[in-house]
Amino acid sequence: MSLIPERFIIGGMNFSSCQLHRRPWLIRANDVVVSNVGGEAVIGMICFYGKPWPSHSSLICLQFPLLRPGEKEFVYESCAPLPTSSGSVKGSFTFVPGRLFI
Fold it and tell me: What domain of life does the native source organism fall in (predicted)?
């Protein structure tokens, strides 16, 4: 995917927006994997109450940010408890062209 001021280009096709769909994270403590996290969205502002989201608890807030060229950048911060004083998190985001949700 590439971004130019007026559109996203994915697989040679132009789109006016894209939306976060999935993310995998590999969390390490002193180079030992302590957690492998993945699934839909990221924890955030869109809440689904009383109806379980697939693979999540019944009360969870998921965020599927919709990105459009020229809009404010999306910043995601996260943390994880570690059994050691040092560690790392490695992962990626998967975006889809257009939008998943309104």
Answer: Eukaryota
